[in-house]
Design a protein that fits this description.
This is Tyr recombinase domain-containing protein. It comes from Amycolatopsis ultiminotia. Keywords: DNA recombination, DNA-binding. Belongs to the 'phage' integrase family. The protein has 357 residues and is mainly α. The chain has 3 domains: 34 residues, no CATH class; 92 residues; 199 residues, hpI Integrase, Chain A. A 3-stranded antiparallel beta sheet has the order 1-2-3. A hairpin with a 4-residue loop joins β1 and β2. α4 packs across α6 and α8 runs parallel beside α13. The chain is elongated, with a radius of gyration of 29 Å.
């Protein structure tokens, strides 16, 4: 039998099999060329973000927008790990151009986190297999040591002065700075503060911070009076469950207020802009002062670090500081009495000069 005859017989047998299966040669030829279920980045990014927690979605939206901007019509299974790594380097270079960037390493790490999340969703939705996940082998750059450091008392005074002499609402800015310096609270805790969180008897505020943590933080009589006055004047007193910190028009402030506040301060103090000083630097400053003058355990409690947090150390499960010890540190910090402070340790405030609050 010639090769031609053999080929003809094979073709005939194949055609007969296809006819039996009800599949035409044209349909077989087109198999794999269409993608009826594979979404593009433009289509899939919003769906993936809808499955993220509100806080994660807020951050990852910025980085996943890079995918929709750069690859709007590409299917999500098209890019390789090399493609994504190249885009991550682009994100890093763009971020490095900002004054307060540390080489763009944080932006690159956040971008990779966002991409890994997107592809975890794609695997869960069975759009791609785990073996085909291009983000699986991506590695974030090594974490660099934070550039934040405690501020000197003179620097704190300069920041307060700059805030008082700039902006349309210096009284609000002064209150925000005092709140962060005195309590070492996070930005989220300040933004979630409500009139109902103020305990005027115990002189504490209830802070709702990251990880759904809730803690009572002692504050000075001066700060309590300032917060109550602010609530009375700006509508917070009438809405005990609403946000306390508000603008003059009684609208709650957002994270944008922090951005513009520090930008104004940086315009008056070039070193603030050059270092990228933010409210978190105030937290560093206060907690360092507390640790140096009292103890690590008191500083951890002052910071609101959980005893079960590995970063805080297992020993704190047994030797964690009490709210009375935190109040004692606060009294030493501000030079004002506090009802929860223990008289035994208050005298220790004489060991070092007080940091201006």
């Amino acid at each position: 039998m010639t090769d031609h005859n053999r080929s003809a017989e094979v073709a005939a047998a194949a055609k007969a099999l296809l006819d039996t299966l009800g599949v035409s040669p044209e349909a077989l030829a087109n198999t794999g060329t269409t993608r009826p279920t594979m979404p593009t980045f433009t289509e899939y990014v919003p769906k993936a973000l809808s499955n993220a927690s509100p806080k994660s979605a807020q951050m990852w939206t910025v980085y996943l927008k890079v995918l929709t901007d750069e690859w709007p019509a590409r299917y999500i299974d098209e890019p390789t790990a090399t493609d994504i790594t190249g885009l991550a380097k682009t994100v890093q270079l763009r971020s490095a151009q900002r004054n307060n960037s540390r080489g763009g390493h944080g932006a690159r790490a956040n971008f990779i986190d966002a991409v890994k999340f997107l592809y975890r969703c794609a695997v869960a939705d069975r759009l791609i297999s785990s073996a085909d996940n291009p983000a699986h082998l991506l590695r974030k750059p090594p974490q660099r040591q934070s550039a934040r450091r405690p501020l000197a008392p003179a620097q704190l005074a300069d920041i307060a002065q700059a805030a008082a002499n700039s902006g349309r609402d210096p009284a609000l800015d002064a209150l925000i700075l005092r709140l962060h310096t005195e309590t070492a609270c996070r930005r989220g805790g300040a933004l979630r503060l409500r009139r109902g969180d103020l305990d005027t008897t115990q002189l504490t505020i209830r802070l709702h911070e990251k990880g759904n943590t809730v803690r009572d933080q002692p504050i000075s009589p001066t700060l309590m009076r300032a917060l109550l006055t602010h609530a009375d004047q700006r509508g917070g007193a009438q809405d005990p469950t609403g946000q306390l910190l508000r603008r003059r028009n009684q609208k709650p402030i957002t994270e944008d207020h922090y951005y513009w506040m520090w930008r104004r301060i940086g315009a008056r103090l070039p070193w603030v802009a050059a270092l990228g000083v933010s409210s978190h630097w105030l937290r560093y400053t206060t907690l360092t002062w507390v640790e140096r003058n009292f103890s690590y355990a008191v500083a951890a409690a002052y910071a609101g670090h959980s005893h079960t947090n590995a970063r805080s150390g297992t020993t704190l499960t047994y030797v964690g500081a009490t709210i009375e010890e935190v109040a004692t540190a606060l009294a030493a910090l501000t030079g004002e009495p506090h009802p929860l402070a223990t008289s035994t340790t208050v005298r220790e405030q004489a060991r070092t000069d007080r940091m201006p609050a």
